[in-house]
Amino acid sequence: MNKAYSVLVLAAIVLFAVAPAVVAQTPLESTMGLVQKIFYYHVPSAMAMFLAALVCGVASAVYLFKGRPGADRLAAAAAELAVVFGLIVLVTGPLWARKAWGVWWQWDARLTSTLLMWMIFVACLLVRRFGGAGAEKLGAAMALFGMANVPFVYISVNIWRTLHPTTAVIPKLPGGMRGPFWFCAVSFMLLFGLLLALRVRLEERRADVEHLYLMADHE
Amino acid sequence: MTTFLRVAGLVVRKDLTVEVRSREIVYTTIFFAVSCVLVFAFALVREGRPLEDAAAGIMWISVAFAGTLALGRTFERERHSETLRALMLAPASRPALYVGKLVGIVLLLLVVEAVLVPLVGLLFHAPIGSSPFRLAALLVLGTIGFSAVGTLFAAMLVRARSRDVMLPILLYPITIPVIIAGVRGTAALFEPVPAVDLADMWMALLAFFDIVFVTLALWTFEPLMTE
Questions:
Q1: How far apart are CA B189 and CA B186, in angstroms?
Q2: Nearest-5° Cα angle at A189, A40 to A153
Q3: Does any domain span residue A139?
Q4: What is the pLDDT of residues A66-121, one digit of tens each?
Q5: Residue A2 reports pLDDT greater than 80
Q6: pLDDT beyond 90 at A195
Q7: Quick one: residue B95, left, alpha or beta (phi over 0 = left, psi -120 to 50 = alpha)?
């Protein structure tokens, strides 16, 4: 474990340890009250999910067109993170919705498109794992379609009338909420970066081991 | 551009000739689609009264299932006699080959739909004749969107070990938006007074999906099919 990782790990631990205290001090939202505080985890995880999807899509395109194995490892790591952060979004969302809207789930444009995007990345992981030879390319193509979904998911709330709040909410946050929100957003981005770096490193080690096995076989 | 269209046209002609001579895929797919609709009819029609608003959904589910089957069979045939490899070795642009395969599959599915849609109309009392041109446009646009993704993935899966399982797994998450738009648009047309504006909105969305999917597929077909 080198120094850069230690610094990242330390920073992420400190930020996540402080985050609950910061969130606890935010003002109560007037209509939803205490439940609204799930927002400080729900939205940052969604941001991390979008980022993971974009990283995965771009890395997949680089892998497909340039054939760089490093890009494939980055895409594999980012696809897993898109699924993990997506799962956090899809669990915290209904928990919040149950209290705020009175239903767990609503088939509106934002919720449906988020679920579908998440399913695309799950399928991407499935094909990578069970697709056999050449599965990386299939996974890469899947990731490109997943990335194409990102702008659609993002603007869906502004085009269709949905129960889900629009993207205009974030810039208009009241003063007491803005600071803690961005604090949590930075924490999640940091966690994303850390997990991505660790996961890519694991893939690199795996590739090294495979290379060594091949070398040993040749001798 | 003319070479592109000629290559695509030749691939379509080749596929149609093979299909017209054997009629294997069109017969099996129609039979499968009809059995699919019949299963839904057994489940959802009670004493001659179908479940309300079920027709549009059943029509598109049957199209999607039959389409998956047809895609699998079409490329299985190419794999069986190594003809896909021969196509890829031909000095022709890969996107043109893709367009040729896509048009062939769309034509095949439209033939299947020509049988399927009247059957759904009959069994589920759907007013398929109330705005026939809009219904046809929805079906064509939806079929193109579904097949655009399907052709890309089925072609790539030809070499994969578990292709039968993988095709639906990859295809459905991506094409569900197309199915949703198709179902909603068709349901709007099946209203007692057809909601034309709503159907047109979904049709525009379908056209948008078609453009995105075909562009992405044309862009990625070449690197994906290169070993």
A1: 5
A2: 70
A3: yes
A4: 989 999 999 999 999 999 999 999 999 999 999 888 899 988 889 999 999 999 99
A5: no
A6: yes
A7: alpha
Question: Quick one: how far is CA B94 from the chain centroid?
Answer: 21
Phi-psi group of B47: left, alpha or beta (phi > 0 → left; psi -120 to 50 → alpha; rest → beta): left
Q: Structure tokens of B183?
A: 């179902």
Quick one: pLDDT at residue A1?
A: 56
For residue A134, give the chain B residue with the closest CA.
Answer: B160
Min Cα distance A63 → chain B (Å) is 10
Best mutation target among B149, B171, B174 (most A Cβ atoms within 10 Å) is: B174
* From B174, B224, B227, residue closest to A64, measured CB to CB: B224
Read off the amino acid at residue A32. Answer: M
The whole-angstrom separation of Cα A53 and Cα A81 is 8
pTM of the model: 0.91
In a domain, A99, yes or no: yes
User: Which residue segment(s) compose the domain that A166 sits in?
Assistant: 42-218
**C-alpha span between A48 and B102 (Å, rounded):** 36
Kindly report the backbone phi and psi dihedral angles of residue A33, in degrees, each rounded to the nearest multiple of 5, phi listed first: 70, -135
Q: Is residue A2 part of a domain?
A: no
> Does residue A23 sit within a domain?
no
DSSP string, A63-131: HHHH--HHHHHHHHHHHHHHHHHHHHHHHHHHHHHHHHTSSS----HHHHHHHHHHHHHHHHHHHHHHS
Establish if B202 touches chain A: CB-CB under 8 angstroms: no
Residues of chain B with pLDDT under 50: none
- At B171 the pLDDT is 94
Q: Tell me the torsion sign for CA atoms B88, B93, B99, B104.
A: negative
Which of A58, A73, A66, A64 has the alpha carbon at shortest distance from B217?
A: A64
- Give how many domains chain A has, as a whole number: 1
Residue B10: both structure tokens together = 């030749």
What value does the mean pLDDT take over residues A1-18? 82
The pLDDT value given to residue A134:
79
**pLDDT for the residue numbered B79:** 86
